[in-house]
Amino acid sequence: MFPYPPDHEHPVTQTKALFLWLLCAVWVLTGLVGHDPWKPEDAHSFGLVHHILQSGDWLVPMLAGDPYMDKPPLFYMTAAVFAKLFSPLLALHDGARLASGFYTALTLLFTGLAGRELFGRGRGWAAAIILIGCLGMLLISHQLITDLALLTGCAVMQYGFTLSLRRPLRAGVLIGTGMGIGFMSKGFISPMLFLLISTAMLLFRNWRTRPFFNSLGIALLCALPWLAIWPALLYLRSPQLFMDWIWIHNIGRWFDYARGGHYEDVFHYLTILPWFAWPAWPLAAWAVWKAHAKVWHTIDFQLPLTSFIVMLITLSLVPNIKDNFALPMLLPLTLLATAALTTLRRGAANALDWFGIMTFGLFSILMWWGWAGLLLDNHAKITQWLKEYQPGFEPEVNTPSFWIALAATALWLVLVWRVGRSMRRAVINWAAGVTLIWVLAMTLWLPWLDSGKSYRSMIASLKHALPAQRGCLASLNVGDTQLAMLEYFGNITALRHARDACDLLLVQSVQTSKPMENETAWKKIWEGGRSSDRNERFRLYQRIGN
């Protein structure tokens, strides 16, 4: 659509394209299965998915018996569908986590399509590879977290915007669909981004055209079912729940935040983007600097740069600030970084390439050495620290995982050796290095990580300590995530606000605090927690005299 000067690169052949698709597939799929739900986001989201699977209620998200009206349920519904489809083969939590891979794959697809539309054939792969190389994507995109569906919605919208001046009908359908996916995943963020980005693009003369206005009108029509059906069904089910969702958890919260004036985290994303968006942001900065004379005069720069500025300002002014909320900003940065590949100087490309090779090579050596030290118990200081961090962990060789890790390491070495010197070598090697580290973490180190992050063993210990003859179990200060895991792993229902009616009481507190103000009527019969968490403690009490 907007031709760029040739960069004297060899075209992407079918063999190279197959390799790039394989790299993306390995990055997406690794780590989705084989471990329990981890605190906080993984376990929290699976609690909502588990409720759908158990109750069949697809309309109202529920967590630990209470309505969870913070977000619409599209992502949880999708995860429940994957869990049911793969339940004969995978555990429910593993099947549910495939929804994360599904949305991440769609994000890569539409980001690649946007890159190709803006910068020409052969640039779609670059956009996808740069995105999987961003450090902020790695862990979050493999968790059961609804932000991934929002990210997909934003990617679909971004691709729609790139088409809006050339194919307004298709662009409108895509923009409206992306807005709807984002709305059904995280609420009003995606409609707000659509409104602000569309308005900002009208500041440029070459966007004030009939095709662009047509695409916006079609987008609104296509988004209407997404924006109306679930809220209408929710209102028909319960007007009170509808008001809780639309006002208490969304619009009202924003107004309270605006009036409160607590903006101490307003620069949070600026502080994390240097690592969160690496290496996309230095490439994007180079592209903008190199094209500074025309950056606000050409369509291919106007869209991603304006989108990034709008996203940064908007997301920095929402009531809740978290690292994973910065994911949408990676999309326009990735597109700007894609533009840099045609102008990046060979010295800078080689510097990034060697930095990546040295960094990931060193990390992979340390991961193999640390794993071998645990397995052989070599009494090194790092080995002792790893054992103390996960007390009770007994390392053993998992043969399939070992061979997968060894094959991934060997393939990375071959790739580093065989990939020819080029501008695209740096981003390919970086993405391959990130993938290698992730594969090693999810094969060699997965048992060690899972032993400390999972609630399974702690809940098994608690279940064993429960008296054979007992009444109900009450809870005090036990979080929603923990209550959900109690139901999933132990089939244990801990009731809120039932302390006076039950003969058993489960209390969650930090290790150094006093669990209850008055313990005279209770006798502690069990205490435990996750092995890697020194602060989060659970104590089980039995009423004295029963």
Number of strand elements:
7
Question: Strand order of the main beta sheet, please?
Answer: 4-3-5-7-6
Poorly predicted tracts of residues: 1-8
Q: How can the largest sheet be summarized?
A: 5 strands, mixed
Distance between the termini: 77 Å
Which features would summarize this protein structure in a list?
546 residues; mainly alpha; 3 domains; five-stranded mixed sheet; two-stranded antiparallel sheet; 22 helices; globular
Describe the structure.
This protein has 3 domains: 327 residues, no CATH class; 108 residues, no CATH class; 88 residues. It contains 22 helices and 7 strands. A 5-stranded mixed beta sheet has the order 4-3-5-7-6. The chain has a two-stranded antiparallel sheet with strand order 1-2. Helix 1 runs antiparallel to helix 4 and helix 13 packs across helix 15. The longest helix is centred in the middle third of the chain and has 31 residues.
Summarize the SSE layout with pairings:
Layout: H1 14-29, H2 41-55, E1 62-63, E2 66-67, H3 74-85, H4 92-119, H5 124-133, H6 135-140, H7 147-163, H8 168-186, H9 189-201, H10 210-237, H11 239-260, H12 268-276, H13 280-290, H14 299-316, H15 330-340, H16 346-376, H17 381-389, H18 399-418, H19 425-441, H20 446-453, H21 456-465, E3 473-476, H22 480-490, E4 494-495, E5 504-510, E6 522-528, E7 536-543
Parallel strand pairs: 3-4, 3-5
Antiparallel strand pairs: 1-2, 5-7, 6-7
